[in-house]
Design a protein that fits this description.
With 504 residues, the chain is of the alpha+beta class. Helix content is 51%, strand content 7%. It is built from 20 helices and nine strands. Helix 7 packs antiparallel against helix 14 (298-329), helix 14 (298-329) crosses helix 17 (361-373) and helix 14 (298-329) crosses helix 20.
Length: 504
């Protein structure tokens, strides 16, 4: 009898909680869809739908009705931002109230999650300040020849592949681009020759691939962890597999020890971290890294290097492969770009130079349009530090509420981009850029928490494209069919992208 009573009381409490939660936006005069228990508005996420698809649907449904739309990410209430001026306030003008992303990290149990992308508050601010010097224009210029050298190797590898099988010129581009960016990041971040271009099954490439193919949890659980980080931390959940964590921690520990023992300086990302390394690792751990005054622990160094590797190889290779896919579908755009590249190379003694690359205006437009069509990060997440009154409205976003900036939906909004599903690089001429709201294009975010590696990512993407397009043409074929990956948190394809490649 007592047990039955407790069960009934428990059910009533749960139902009351869910009703109160899932009617929140309605009670506050914000448009919402009727949610499902526990799932909220996330039905099908990670299986039949990508998170961006759900946000796109809600964005289209709510836009024009209010400055924000309400949604429920499982058991978390979230505000979808529908107005670009409000986006600007959140990312820039009122950044102090929105500096945290509110996504999963669990430094204690899963140290690789304690990186710049997920850190919050003073931890994020201190880490950002310490890492900013490695991404200056001067550092990019220093690393430029190294990236060009890997780019040349990319061209040589493709040429060899065509020579070995001249009757079969259909290549899988996505993995090829990932091998290129893995070698670039391995060299610039770790000072290690990963040999991924030479050997598709090289250890670094296998580990990089496994991050996205050998998940620790079902996609639905991953989505829950990233959108309900406090609950996930209390449950001591981990995101990365033990194999991945052990590998990267071991690589950093051994590389740091070797460099320190042999007084090796490479002026790369890891060198900067070594300069910031704590003299007393135990003392640094006790400080919990809040102000980083004791320096970085090995685990913190590994986390920062890991996210540089992860973001660097995956986002840039995805952008490269989507770009080549669109160029194959639009041969006239590809030819115009090839002519710009060849003309620029001729003017620079047939070499890829730092200044020459920045002078390729059409290349920049093509890459920008690729990032508009396929923003690798489809949404930006923020949380409110204090209650926030939305300017020029009576609405308030309460403290602790998740905020979703729908990047992919904005990029495909016909109000900002005519025929948004068409690939048109001319959208990004200087005159067209001036006409557009500054927050209508957000592949790297904006404001103080924009992507710290934006310069590096664009640089390696452009160098890779230049080295490929100067030697080869890319065409669609019967096997050129892409299927978007709903299981991945990023925007990418399920399987590869196959294109016909011809030497020129």
């Amino acid at each position: 009898m007592i047990l039955a009573t407790l069960i009934v009381v428990g059910l009533i409490t749960l139902l009351t909680y869910l009703y109160t939660l899932y009617s929140y936006w309605q009670r506050h005069g914000v448009p919402q869809e009727i949610p499902l228990p526990i799932l909220g508005n996330m039905k099908g996420v990670g299986t039949s739908k990508h998170f961006r698809d759900i946000i796109q649907r809600l964005y289209t449904k709510f836009k024009g009705k209010a400055a924000i739309g309400g949604c429920y990410v499982f058991v978390t209430k979230a505000a979808i931002i529908l107005d670009l001026e409000l986006v600007k306030h959140i990312l820039i003008k009122d950044f102090s109230n929105f500096h945290d992303r509110g996504v999963f990290n669990n430094v204690r149990d899963d140290p690789l999650t304690g990186h710049l992308v997920t850190l919050e508050g003073e931890q994020w601010r201190a880490m950002r300040n310490k890492l900013t010097p490695v991404f200056t224009s001067a550092k990019m210029k220093y690393m430029f020849p190294t990236v060009v050298k890997v780019g040349q190797h990319l061209g040589e590898v493709v040429a060899d592949m065509l020579k070995k099988a001249p009757e079969d010129t259909i290549l899988e581009i996505k993995d090829l681009c990932a091998r290129f960016t893995t070698d670039v990041i391995g060299t610039c971040a770790f000072g290690i020759d990963c040999c991924s271009l030479k050997d598709p099954n090289a250890e670094f490439r296998r580990k990089g691939r496994s991050i996205f193919t050998e998940m620790r949890h079902h996609p639905l659980v991953q989505q829950f962890m990233f959108t309900n980080p406090k609950v996930a931390r209390k449950l001591r959940m981990k995101f990365f597999t033990d194999k991945v964590s052990t590998f990267f921690l071991k690589v950093i520990r051994e590389t740091v020890e070797y460099r320190e023992k042999n007084s090796i300086k490479r002026n790369d990302f890891l060198d900067l971290l070594i300069e910031l390394k704590a003299k007393d690792q135990e003392l640094a751990r006790e400080s919990q890294g809040i102000d980083l005054s004791q320096g970085l622990t090995i685990e913190q160094m590994a986390a920062q290097t890991f996210v540089f590797f992860l973001a660097g190889f995956e986002t840039s290779s995805t952008t490269m492969s989507f770009c080549l896919y669109e160029l194959a579908r639009h041969p006239q755009i590809q030819e115009k770009l090839r002519q710009e590249i060849l003309k620029n190379l001729k003017e620079n003694n047939n070499e890829v130079t730092y200044e020459g690359l920045h002078g390729m205006e059409y290349l920049d437009q093509v890459v920008s349009e690729t990032l508009r069509c396929y923003p690798v990060l489809p949404v930006l997440m923020r949380t409110t530090k204090y209650d926030y009154r939305i300017p020029k409205t009576s609405l308030t976003i309460e403290k602790g509420t998740s905020v979703v900036i729908p990047v992919d939906a904005i990029h495909h909004d016909p109000e900002y981009y005519e025929q948004p599903n068409e690939f048109k690089p001319e959208r990004f001429t200087a005159s067209e850029n001036e006409k557009r709201h500054s927050c209508a294009y957000l592949p790297f975010g904006d404001g103080p928490r924009n992507c710290i590696g934006m310069r590096f990512g664009k640089m390696q993407t452009k160098i890779g494209l230049v080295e490929l397009l100067r030697h080869f043409r890319f065409e669609s074929c019967q096997q050129t069919e892409i299927v978007m990956d709903n299981k991945n948190l990023l925007v990418t394809t399920e399987g590869g992208i196959k294109l016909k490649v011809t030497a020129v």
